[in-house]
Amino acid sequence: MPTLQENLHRWSQFDFDQAEAWSEEWGGTENLWWSTLHPRLRHLLDTGVLLEIAPGGGRLTQFLVERCSRLILVDLSESSMRACRQRFAAHDHVEYVLNDGLSLDAVADGSVDLAVSYDSLVHCEIDVVEAYVVALGRKLVPGGHAFLHHSNFAALLDPETGEGRPNHHWRATSVCAGQVRRLCLSAGLECTHQELIGWGGTDLTDCFSLLTRPTGERRPETRVMENPDFMNEARTARAYGEVFSPAGG
Ligand SMILES: C[S@@+](CC[C@H](N)C(=O)[O-])C[C@H]1O[C@@H](n2cnc3c(N)ncnc32)[C@H](O)[C@@H]1O
Fold this sequence. Notes:
Elements: H1 4-12, H2 29-41, E1 47-53, H3 61-64, E2 68-75, H4 78-87, E3 94-98, E4 112-117, H5 126-139, E5 140-151, H6 177-187, E6 190-197, E7 206-212, E8 223-227, H7 230-244
Parallel strand pairs: 1-2, 1-4, 2-3, 4-5, 6-8
Antiparallel strand pairs: 5-7, 6-7
Helix pairs in contact: 2-7, 5-6
The protein binds S-adenosylmethionine.
C-alpha cells in the first residue's frame, strides 16, 4: 500500500528530468498528450482557473499552461514545485502550492473551473483520494469539472482474502471506481463518467473519473465504460509517430 509518507519519500528524491521515460510506450509525451489526454480533456480546456493536482515535473502541465487564464499547481514534494517553478518561470499566471498531500486549503472556495490529475493519484490510497474529492466539492465553481486518474485496484482484490492480481505499477490497493462514485455523492459532486483502463495490461487497474459540481439537481447515474485495450492507444500513437514524423520511417 503506497502511503502518503512513502509518496513523500519517493518523490522528494526523484529527478523529474527522468519523467519523460514514463511516456516511452507512447513514443514520447507529445504523443501521449495528443493521443490519450487531449481527446479526453479537449471539451474542458481553454478555461479560466485550472488546478493541477500532483504535476510532478510538469510533463502534462506543459500542455495545460496555455489552455487557461490561471494555473494552480499543487504537489506534496518540494522537488516537484522546484522543477515546475523553473520550467514555467516565463508564465506569470502560474501559482505553486506545496501541500501536505491532502489539503487544497490554499485554493479559494468556488474558484476552480477545471481540476486535473494524471498518473499521480493512482499511487494514493483512499484517505488521500477522499480528502481531494471532498475538497473539490468546495473548490470547484458550480458547473466546474475535475478529471482524476486514480486506482481501481481494490476492485481486483478478493474482498475476503485481500488477494488478487500482481501489483506491478505501485497502485493504491484501497481505491476503486465505486468508492470514488460514493465519495462524490457525499461531497455534493456528480461523477458523470468513469473509464476503467488496463494500465500496462488488460486488468482494469486504473480509472479516469470525470466529476462535476452540479448547477441544479444532481443526477446520480455514472456512465461507466471498460477499456482493457487502453495500451493500444499508446502503441498506435507510437507507431504513427515513428512512421509519419519527419524524422521517422
Ligand atoms: C508519478 S509522479 C507524476 C507526475 C505527473 N503527474 C506526471 O504525470 O508526470 C507523482 C507526483 O505526485 C505527487 N504526489 C504524490 N502523492 C501526492 C499527494 N497526496 N498530494 C499531492 N501530490 C502528490 C508526487 O510528489 C509527484 O510529483
